[in-house]
Amino acid sequence: MKRVAILQSNYIPWKGYFDIIRKVDLFVFYDDVQYTKNDWRNRNMIATAKGPQWLTIPCGTDLNRLVCEVRADKAPWRRKHWASIEQNYRKAPHWDYFAPYLRDFYGREWEYLSDLNQTFIRDVSRNVLGFGTEFGDSRDYGLSGAKGDRVLDLLKQTGATHYLSGPAAKSYIDESAFEREGIALEWMDYSGYPEYDQRFAPFSHNVSIVDLIFCCGPDAPDYIRRETAP
After folding, report:
1. What is the pLDDT of residues 152-176, one digit of tens each?
2. What is the rounded CA–CA span in Å between residue 192 and residue 223?
3. Model confidence over 181-228: pLDDT tens digits?
4. How many CA atoms lie within 13 A of 36 on its CB side?
């Protein structure tokens, strides 16, 4: 059995994104598709005393681009994002556990949004959360077709027997096409995550993974593995 997930890269994603990664053998970044403005590709939220705060990477207004073609603006967004994170998490229990990585991450020059997103996701998955999932990139597969057909082509090339999809794809995926190809289609369930000691009330599940790591440190994976949650 080989379980595969295919998703566009997101900026410092929430814990549900990493839960999908945890559940599959191969996670494929799907960044050679249309870029959408004001989406999770270039922004996410952190918890603050005033409620969730957006951190947004300025990427210009041109929508005629693939995700992998989007360049991160050279404006001082990296310094601003790091300052917001430091202001809201420097008193978190596990600040020293994760701050060195993030300080280095925001100290680097990033040309492409996709490279920035993928690097963070791979590093956190492997080195912080300890997941053994393999990663791939859709650009490495000579894909054809559109939407569901393109996803099927990618899955067949990876040798997938099971496809774990986010629930938003129910609006366009043809389940019968997967049945014909002998690929079992599974839908991700984001319910049931346990709460943890977040710094600010009310509790929010939807903030970036950086919140969980700063608050829980080495125990962060326990709040993603719902079947073994505290």
Report:
1. 999 999 999 999 999 988 888 889 9
2. 10
3. 999 999 999 999 999 999 999 999 999 999 999 999 999 999 998 654
4. 7
> CA-to-CA distance for 222 and 193, rounded, in angstroms?
10
With tokens 């129910």, the residue in question is 170
Q: Distance of alpha carbon 159 from its chain centroid, rounded? A: 23
Question: CA 200, CA 194: separation in Å to the nearest integer?
Answer: 16
Within 10 angstroms of residue 194's Cβ, the number of other Cβ atoms is 12
- Residue by residue, what is the 3-state secondary structure of 20-79? HHHHCCEEEECCCCECCCCCCCCEEEECCCCCCEEEECCCCCCCCCEHHHCECCCCCHHH
Give me the amino acid identity at 74. K
Strand partners, 4: 26, 163
Distance (Å, rounded) from C-alpha 225 to C-alpha 98? Answer: 20
